[in-house]
């Protein structure tokens, strides 16, 4: 995707807060950003861009062109980074000389975007979205676990990986999986726990997901902390895929009680979640074991999937996964060093 240079520079002027000299009677509706605030603006987008001291609006225009060259889903869907930039630019908290609906700022922004075939608008959640005028397609940001991670995200991913190495199975469920699936839009998430295994029937977690049509799908999760393999003699700390597969079948065959609708329902889909690696042999075995009726009902998520999803959804790390304060002058987290 590529914007004409004059449009990139016009959008950059809005980001910098440069006032249009031809509209002296009209106040500015965008906050003025000096060099340091421009750097801060892009850091808040979880990027590594830092202003180099050159002409502000030209430097920002160069960054915009780089962001527009990132991978995206066709000409009617701008890249994710660019959409997040527009949402941040139009934050209601940055309103100037007008109310939080920012109608005047939105008008100026759309004068630029319309020349490239797009329109910005506020949704019911007060976030700003982009609509392609020709196809009326709205770009909705979804967490993309396959996108390149920033330096900060890579560090958070490594911290979480260290936590997965030492956590128990209950900690994996309660401190990682429950917050993650809540963030991904699942509801009524209930953990069976391992202290009382009565009537668990292979389910460590059950939850439900509401489709746009208001229909409900029910999901069960069989979680294992270690590696899942397919060897004849499983090492200590690992789990055998055949055993996990049988537990998933048991999960699909037994009902759960949903207290919100006061009736028993069957689990529609089963997730096999591993805090460690799912070996290639285990994946191949599972693929061969699933017939056509079960292939869409059983899915698996391994360690890399957990780490990437957790980071891109911007969830806070579990307390025990946070970096430790080891400097000798630090006496307490809440006390200043001097």
Describe this structure in words.
The protein is of the alpha/beta class. The chain has two domains: 5-139, no CATH class; 151-321, Trna Endonuclease, Chain: A, domain 1 (3-Layer(aba) Sandwich), CATH 3.40.1350. The protein is 35% helix and 16% strand. It has helices at residues 5-16, 35-43, 56-68, 80-89, 103-113, 151-166, 169-183, 241-253, 280-289, 303-312, and strands at residues 118-122, 128-132, 137-139, 187-191, 205-210, 216-224, 228-229, 239-240, 255-258, 263-266, 269-274, 298-301. The chain has a five-stranded mixed β-sheet with strand order 4-5-6-11-12, with helices on both faces. Helix 1 (5-16) crosses helix 3. The longest helix is centred in the middle third of the chain and has 16 residues, at 151-166. The chain is elongated and about 75 Å long. Mean pLDDT is 83; it is low at 325-338.
Helix content: 25-40%
> What is the tally of helical segments?
10
Sheet/helix structural class? alpha/beta
Largest sheet: 5 strands, mixed
CATH class of the largest domain: Alpha Beta
Beta-strand proportion:
15-25%
Terminal CA distance reads 51 Å
Strand order of the largest sheet: 4-5-6-11-12
List how many beta strands DSSP finds.
12
Count of domains: 2
Q: What Rg is obtained from the alpha carbons, in whole angstroms? A: 25 Å
Could you tell me the CATH topology label of the largest domain: Trna Endonuclease, Chain: A, domain 1
Give the integer mean of the pLDDT values. Answer: 83
Query: What gross morphology would you assign?
Result: elongated
Q: At CATH's second level, what is the architecture of the largest domain?
A: 3-Layer(aba) Sandwich
Protein name: Restriction endonuclease
Organism: Antricoccus suffuscus
């Amino acid at each position: 995707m590529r914007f004409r240079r004059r449009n990139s520079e016009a959008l950059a002027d809005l980001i910098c807060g440069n006032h249009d000299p031809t509209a002296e009677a009209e106040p500015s509706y965008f906050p003025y950003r000096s060099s340091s605030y421009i750097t801060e603006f892009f850091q808040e987008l979880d990027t590594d861009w830092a202003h180099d001291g050159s002409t502000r609006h030209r430097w920002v225009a160069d960054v915009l062109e780089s962001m527009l060259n990132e991978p995206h889903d066709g000409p009617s869907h701008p890249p994710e980074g660019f959409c997040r930039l527009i949402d941040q630019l139009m934050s209601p908290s940055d309103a100037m000389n007008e109310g939080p609906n920012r109608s005047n700022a939105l008008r100026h922004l759309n004068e630029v975007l319309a020349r490239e075939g797009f329109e910005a608008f506020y949704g019911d959640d007060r976030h700003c979205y982009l609509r392609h005028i020709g196809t009326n397609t709205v770009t909705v940001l979804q967490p993309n676990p396959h996108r390149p991670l920033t330096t900060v995200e890579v560090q958070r991913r490594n911290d979480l990986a260290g936590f997965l190495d030492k956590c128990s199975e209950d900690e994996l469920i309660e401190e990682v999986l429950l917050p993650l699936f809540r963030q991904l839009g699942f509801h009524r998430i209930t953990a069976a726990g391992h202290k009382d295994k009565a009537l668990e029937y292979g389910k460590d977690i059950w939850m439900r997901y509401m489709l746009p049509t208001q229909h409900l799908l029910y999901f069960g999760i069989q979680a294992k902390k270690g590696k899942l393999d397919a060897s004849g003699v499983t090492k200590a700390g690992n789990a055998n895929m055949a055993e996990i597969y049988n537990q998933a079948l048991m999960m699909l065959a037994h009902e759960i009680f949903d207290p919100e609708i006061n009736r028993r329902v069957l689990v529609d889909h089963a997730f096999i979640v591993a805090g460690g690696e799912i070996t290639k042999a285990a994946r191949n075995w599972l693929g061969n074991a699933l017939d056509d009726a079960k292939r869409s009902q059983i899915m698996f998520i391994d360690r890399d999937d957990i780490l990437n999803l957790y980071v891109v959804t911007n969830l806070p790390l579990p307390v025990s996964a946070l970096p430790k304060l080891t400097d000798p002058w630090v006496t307490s987290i809440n006390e200043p060093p001097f």
